[in-house]
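Subgroup meeting minutes
Present: P.N., E.W., G.H.
Scribe: E.W.

1. P.N. recapped why we're keeping a running log of single-chain structure predictions: easier to compare across weeks, and new members can see raw inputs and outputs side by side.
2. G.H. added today's entry (119 aa).
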Amino acid sequence: MSNSSIMENFEKKHKKENKYVFEVGDSVDVSFRITEGDKTRVQLFSGVVIGKKGTGINEMFTVRRISYGEGVERVFPLYSPLIESIEVTKQGKTRRSKLYYLRERTGKKATKVKEKLGE
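Output recorded in log:
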């Protein structure tokens, strides 16, 4: 067996059905399970999806938010068992696949992405 077929079998076995449908530019609420000592809790991370990368089981997405005037980014693995849910709060319309230009912006412009009108 070649390495690629072993990886494909592994991905088929461990990849759950992708029930989260969102695109770059969407505002999302990510509920992420955090373990502190022997306790676990669910923490909500809200922000704009500024990029997606990877394929298959290695797919990741980056969420950016402004917290107390400072930009905070977090990268989440899409197929992580620690993700409770991903909820799209607002759909955005973009012309790019990576929204890294939002990093240089401040204030309301840093979170402003054109809203997608009803399709």
